[in-house]
Design goal:
heterodimer; A: about 200 residues; mainly alpha; two-stranded antiparallel ribbon; 7 helices; elongated; B: about 270 residues; alpha+beta; about 45% helix; about 20% strand
């Protein structure tokens, strides 16, 4: 039996990690990791650290606010974060597809903006076909085509949606763990042998 | 350790904002046009202090000569004016951003201690233009007019930065080195392209196609002599995207037009 709340939290985290490794065995982790690495935002450079921090904070908050709550309440949380996941991930993909471009050289993705610089907007469509054409003509420098503020806004939006996706995923798994810890599994009935008194 | 670095970067960015606001208030509080030098000194002092912060909100200028690989690595740095937390129509936004960049260039180029590179002249001209902008701001009370004036001087500031790049190009050529920029965003890398002329001996100048259109159609670059051409000096150059080129030969032959760099295939330019 745990002695303090912190002991119980450690048990929850241990269960969470066991569940995570059970569901994501080696055969699945490698391609998923590769998919994630290619799909993740390229900014900021400390993204793995930030994502880990988010995981810890989500686990802490869930445990702090919901560890003692009824199963129904935890179920509602699980539905809520699953809805957030269903919204955030497709939104991330759409914005990534629309507002990032692939480098001709490294194949890395970088953010575009959504507000054209005035000296570029004036040239479309008479001298430059569109913003993507302007980007090619500007040595693939996004700041030459869009305002820095709009480029930053795109980066922040991508980062936010990515973190919401990851936080929702962690929260849904952690909710499941909390729920299962609360459920009592009834013991299997013993087989009754003829002539033997049932004890 | 990485979390500590992130936290200290966030703290440094916050201090950058506070310092910018503080120096902005100092400049506004200074008396009017008759002691503009004091206002200019305040701007320069503020820029120095902000560069001292070495905050990640600034992209610092760099200059490094690698004798092993015969490469000159450089960056003229940049400042995101939005990070200064000044109003969009505040004329000091441009002044501070460019003065910080100039200060960063001075630090980096001074530290590199490169002989035969007269970088001080374009930087001095940049500071002189910024001083003129401060004079204009201090004269009037209409900040929108002052901001429009500051924006109208931006092409001159960009021209001096291009002049500095041309000096770096000439310096690299004189030593037979390749010049490479180090401040490109992660996706904006370049191809190393072999550029040659046939017959040999031609001089090739390039400009990003977008810049050329802006110079030609919008008159953003002043007269033709001051357009920001980049002269290709090495056998291999760092290029990506579309460029407008002008190739000339000693016998008077010439060719110009668009080239598109989508891979590392060599480019050979011939007279028309």
């Amino acid at each position: 039996m745990p002695r303090t709340g912190l002991d119980e939290f450690r048990e929850v985290v241990t269960d969470f990690r066991s569940f995570l490794s059970w569901t994501l065995n080696v055969a699945i982790v490698a391609p998923i990791a590769d998919f994630v690495i290619k799909l993740g935002p390229t900014w900021p450079s400390g993204l793995p650290i930030i994502t880990t921090l988010v995981e810890v904070i989500v686990l802490m908050l869930l445990f702090h606010f919901f560890a003692r709550k009824a199963q129904r309440r935890i179920s509602r949380v699980m539905y809520g974060v699953l809805c957030a996941l269903v919204f955030a991930f497709p939104a991330y993909l759409v914005i990534r597809e629309t507002y990032t471009f692939e480098s001709a050289v490294t194949k890395n993705r970088d953010a575009k903006g959504f507000v054209l610089r005035p000296e570029v907007a004036t040239l479309i469509p008479a001298s430059v076909t569109d913003a993507d054409d302007a980007l090619v003509k500007a040595e693939y420098e996004p700041k030459s085509v869009w305002t820095p503020g709009s480029i930053t806004a795109v980066k922040m939006t991508l980062l936010g949606l990515w973190l919401v996706t990851f936080a929702s995923l962690v929260a849904s798994l952690a909710s499941f763990v909390l729920l299962q810890r609360k459920r009592h599994v009834a013991p299997l009935p013993r087989p009754v042998q003829r002539g033997v008194p049932h004890v | 350790m990485k979390a500590l670095n992130l936290a200290s970067a966030a703290l440094a960015a916050a201090s950058l904002v506070v310092l910018a606001i503080t120096y902005r208030q100092d400049v506004s509080a200074a008396p009017r046009a008759d002691d503009v030098p004091e206002a200019v000194a305040t701007v320069r002092e503020g820029a120095r202090a902000l560069v001292d912060q070495q905050t990640v909100a600034l992209k610092r200028a760099e200059l490094e000569i690698d004798d092993k690989t015969k490469t000159v690595y450089y960056s003229l740095g940049s400042v995101n004016p939005d990070a200064l937390n000044l109003d969009a129509d505040d004329p000091y936004r441009i002044v501070f951003a460019r003065q910080i960049q100039a200060e960063s260039i001075k630090r980096a180029f001074r530290a590199a201690a490169v002989n035969g590179l007269a970088w001080q002249q374009p930087v001095a001209r940049i500071e002189s233009i910024l001083a003129e902008i401060v004079l204009e701001i201090r004269k009037g009370s209409d900040s929108k007019k002052a901001n429009d004036y500051a924006e109208s001087r931006l092409p001159e500031l960009d021209k001096e930065l291009d002049a500095l790049r041309s000096l770096l190009v000439a310096y690299a050529k004189s030593r037979g080195y390749v010049l490479k920029r180090t401040d490109r965003a992660p996706a904006s890398d370049t191809f190393t392209v072999e550029v040659s002329t046939e017959p040999k001996g031609g001089t090739v100048r390039v400009m990003p196609a977008l810049k050329h259109i802006q110079c030609e159609k919008l008159n953003m670059c002043g007269d033709a002599a001051s357009w920001p051409w980049r002269q290709l000096v090495s056998d291999t150059e760092s290029l990506v995207g579309e460029y407008y080129f002008v190739a000339t030969w000693p016998d008077g032959k010439r060719n110009e037009g668009l080239i598109s760099v989508r891979n590392a295939s060599p480019i050979t330019l011939k007279p028309k």
